[in-house]
């Protein structure tokens, strides 16, 4: 028997209308930075890369996961900064704020280890072009993995998981933030899409095991499932490091297409985002209207509880 289901009768919360973005087309820069054990050098180096990206026309700059410190449980507590205290207590975010203001760009500042009281987080700060902190995302899903002979890493040994989604309105559209392992959880991306995100940014440092298999696959899936843009930014690979990053920072469009990518060396990718493609793809293939709200539903618990 034919189904009698009608989307308009489903008891699902109405989808948020895609907000009109302040710009339709703009350039994004993905700064795949080399990271050393010298924090001061890492900050100066990131500042130079941001400036170069802005000179090349980028209005949005994305940095890698943990760009001011080596990515190891030993280093995270030593390199951690008190972001809320600001100033000298957080030279990395002070630099990001200054760079955003003086270059008049939006910065999704990768992530740095954050100290808050006696806890440590893996935290991404978003700065507007006035230099103000617009959002702070603490990595929600910590990366604990054990594949004997390949990779064992227990991020939860030192870090505490964040408890909030982070979606932020910027001069370059509505952006949902996730950090690295957060990309594995499609529900988070779906919540961001339901809240009207144009773009998801994931600073990430995948590794030599899950990187080749999952990194691009996950980005393309999050973009195609939700019909929006996905940008990722990794540190450059250091083959001598304790944790070897996969690299391959990438921009994916709303049809799941790779628009720009790279290998593992240090580089700055500059690519164009055109938000009109989102509407086009959602018209071509109206997934939103085809959802079966009578069979399954997405529940945004954060919104429900707020
Ligand atoms: O999810 C993965 O496979 C890798 C995640 C990761 O490297 C991280 O969260 O730091």
Automatic annotation (TrEMBL):
CN hydrolase domain: residues covered: 26-275
Stored Pfam families: CN_hydrolase
Domain of life: Eukaryota
Entry-linked InterPro entries: C-N_Hydrolase, C-N_Hydrolase_sf, Nit1/2_C-N_Hydrolase
Keywords: Hydrolase
Key word Hydrolase present: yes
One Gene Ontology cellular component annotation held by this UniProt entry: mitochondrion
Single GO MF annotation: omega-amidase activity
GO biological process: asparagine metabolic process; glutamine metabolic process; oxaloacetate metabolic process
CDD domains the record matches: nit
Full protein name: CN hydrolase domain-containing protein
